[in-house]
């Protein structure tokens, strides 16, 4: 143990030396990588509010807001391991939250349970197993409804809001629509960026490689007391940031591209430091387990407890039931890329055919558009956001 700690100290010192020399060249990148969402919004001159939202099962969530009193509310919901920072990282003129605010919307950014901003529960502590007993299912049936009600109660009379979700932010929305269909009447338009539901055509990736073994991995993790991934630890977060950004930068970039899809043309040189300053933001091991079950099952099912007795207790059946996508009857717009290994074109089109009210279906024309281009691509406004704004306007004017 002493030798390990001694080596770790020297690694930290070496990283600091390398880091210090590079930081001198671009202090703005360093600042944005280490500022949290409130600091980023304030830095660029936008108004900011922080709101605490309580769910019916005891979580206290944090929502970040760029307020516009009396304006149409828009709710942005991030993906797995992400946070509200994803909507502002690219900065003014590029990031979706700023662009929506510039267009006169009241912008709300949710942080779902378990990420770095939403680690409070009225009973359980993050060190307890019960705190992490959730996946996208609980986000859909608890976090999203509580947030929608909270926003509409403070919207100055609006009965509906716009919802934009990325990746897991779409999965949890479809759970809400399936399980709590009354909330579809509170949605003016749902816009799904890289919607993740089906995985039949998902490209070979780390996720698809691990999926058949996830049961054993989860059991092993739980056996040694690991229920969140990665564990929230500022020392390790900073070490990962420094080494991955400055020493093994090409290796880390390669690894990210293998997961999200290779797109060097839209990958800014400052994207990696900013991204790693805010990602990963934390979630439960069960979240990965539930997604792996979807890969293995080929459908869209509730969580499988791997026990007939537990499944019967939870669902009244030996196997978990499928979510009822036919209940998602609000207006839906889907956006997806040809180079996204996590939301394959045929899988999204399968999803589209299951939904009853798709008003806009867009396969992005840029062939290399990948899973994180939805947030950080250099030309994301031209490639995607301008189309989203047009669809929103058409819905508001009754054309769709």
TrEMBL record:
Pfam families: Abhydro_lipase (PF04083). Keywords: Glycoprotein, Hydrolase, Lipid degradation, Lipid metabolism, Signal. GO terms for biological process: lipid catabolic process. This is Lipase. Residues 1-20 form the signal peptide. Transmembrane segments: none annotated. InterPro entries: AB_hydrolase_fold (IPR029058), AB_hydrolase_lipase (IPR006693), Lipase_euk (IPR025483). It comes from Drosophila grimshawi (Hawaiian fruit fly).
């Amino acid at each position: 143990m002493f030798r390990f700690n001694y080596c770790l100290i020297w690694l930290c010192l070496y990283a600091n030396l390398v880091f210090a020399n590079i930081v001198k060249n671009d202090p703005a990148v360093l600042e944005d990588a280490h500022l949290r969402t409130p600091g980023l919004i304030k830095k660029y001159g936008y108004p900011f509010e922080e709101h605490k939202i309580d769910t019916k099962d005891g979580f206290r969530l944090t929502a970040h807001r760029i307020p516009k009193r009396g304006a149409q509310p828009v709710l942005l919901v991030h993906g797995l391991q992400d946070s509200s920072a994803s909507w502002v990282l690219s900065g003014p003129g590029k990031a979706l939250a700023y662009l929506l605010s510039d267009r006169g919307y009241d912008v709300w950014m949710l942080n779902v349970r378990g990420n770095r901003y939403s680690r409070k529960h009225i009973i359980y502590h993050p060190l307890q197993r019960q705190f992490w007993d959730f996946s996208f299912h609980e986000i859909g049936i608890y976090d999203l409804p509580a947030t929608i009600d909270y926003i509409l109660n403070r919207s100055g009379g609006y009965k509906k809001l716009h919802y934009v979700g990325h990746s897991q932010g779409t999965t949890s929305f479809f759970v809400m629509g399936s399980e709590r269909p009354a909330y579809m009447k509170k949605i003016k338009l749902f816009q799904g960026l890289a919607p993740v539901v089906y995985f039949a055509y998902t490209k070979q990736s780390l996720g698809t490689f691990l999926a058949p073994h996830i049961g054993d991995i989860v059991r092993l993790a739980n056996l040694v007391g690991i229920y969140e991934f990665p564990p929230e630890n500022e020392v390790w977060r900073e070490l990962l940031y420094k080494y991955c950004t400055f020493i093994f930068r090409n290796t880390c970039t390669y690894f990210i591209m293998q997961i999200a899809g290779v797109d060097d043309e839209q990958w800014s040189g400052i994207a990696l430091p900013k991204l790693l300053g805010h990602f990963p933001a934390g979630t439960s091991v069960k979240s990965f387990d539930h997604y792996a079950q979807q890969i293995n099952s080929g459908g869209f099912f509730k969580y499988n407890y791997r026990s007939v007795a537990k499944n019967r207790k939870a669902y009244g059946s030996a196997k978990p039931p499928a979510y009822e996508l036919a209940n998602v009857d609000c207006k839906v717009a889907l956006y997806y890329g040809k180079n996204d290994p996590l939301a394959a074109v045929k899988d999204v089109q399968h999803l589209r055919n299951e939904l009853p009210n798709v008003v806009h279906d867009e396969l992005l024309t840029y062939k290399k558009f990948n899973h994180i281009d939805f947030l950080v691509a250099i030309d994301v406004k031209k490639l995607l956001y301008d189309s989203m704004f047009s669809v929103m306007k058409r819905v508001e004017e009754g054309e769709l």
